[in-house]
Specification:
Length: 114
C-alpha cells in the first residue's frame, strides 16, 4: 500500500493550489479517502473526507467554502482544491484511506506567505 502526495508549494495569501494523492496497493474505489494536515507544533487534523463513489463529502469548518475534495477512481487519485488560502493553512498535507487507515505517506508541504 502506498500513498504519494504532490502539488504543494509556496503561495501568497488568497492564492490557490491543487493537491493530488496517488494511491496504490489496494482497491481504491472501495474506500473513502481523506485529507489531513499537520502544522508545526500542532497535532495532525482532518481537513476533508470523500466517500468511495465521490457522492458524499465532508469538510472541517475551517476550510468549508474554500477547499474542495474530489476523486478519480480510474486514476486511483484523490484531489484537494484549495482556494482563498490563508497563512494559517500552512502545513504538511497528507491523504489517507478513511477506514481502516494505512501508513502515512510523506505528505506535501504547503506554505502560505507573502
Amino acid at each position: 500500500v502506498q500513498l504519494v502526495e504532490s502539488g504543494g508549494g509556496l503561495v501568497q495569501p488568497g492564492g490557490s493550489l491543487r493537491l493530488s494523492c496517488a494511491a496504490s496497493g489496494f482497491t481504491f474505489s472501495r474506500y473513502g479517502m481523506s485529507w489531513h494536515r499537520q502544522a508545526p507544533m500542532k497535532a495532525r487534523e482532518l481537513v476533508a473526507f470523500i466517500s468511495s463513489t465521490g457522492g458524499s463529502t465532508n469538510y472541517a469548518n475551517f476550510v468549508k467554502g474554500r477547499f474542495t475534495i474530489s476523486r478519480d477512481n480510474a486514476k486511483k487519485t484523490v484531489y484537494l482544491q484549495m482556494n482563498s488560502l490563508k497563512p494559517e493553512d500552512t502545513a504538511v498535507y497528507y491523504c489517507n484511506r478513511a477506514s481502516p487507515p494505512v501508513d502515512w505517506g510523506q505528505g506535501t508541504q504547503v506554505i502560505v506567505s507573502s
